[in-house]
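Why do we bother with a discrete structure alphabet at all? Because it lets us treat a fold like text: something you can write down, compare, and reason about line by line. To make this less abstract, here is a complete entry for Metal-binding protein. Read it the way you would read a sentence in a foreign language you are learning: slowly, and without expecting to understand everything at once.
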Amino acid sequence: MAGAPGPLRTYTLLGADRRSYRATEPGTLGGHRRGRLYGRLDCPSALRALARGGYRRHRVFFADEATALAAGYRPCAVCLPARYARWKANRETMEPS
Ligand SMILES: [Zn+2]
């Protein structure tokens, strides 16, 4: 009587608490775990790094931008320049360090 798992494949995404979880929908954003940055799945910078290798094991995915930000990731300056500028401006005004 165990319900069939069904044909749905699952995706490993990163949550706001930076723990991975399985989701039935693919992420909309990619990220780099060590660089703590996120960007578009077709980010030219990320694709170049993936092609070179070494990046893949640090690759993470987010369901949406709010989750990426909540996890402490910053927007990629290459593929999300407007968001990056906004993030940078916010950080400078909100986080005196
Ligand atoms: Zn990017």
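What the structure line is telling us, in plain words: The CA atoms of residues 75 and 81 lie 8 Å apart. Residues 39-40, 43, 45-46, 76, 78-79 surround zinc ion (CB under 6 Å).
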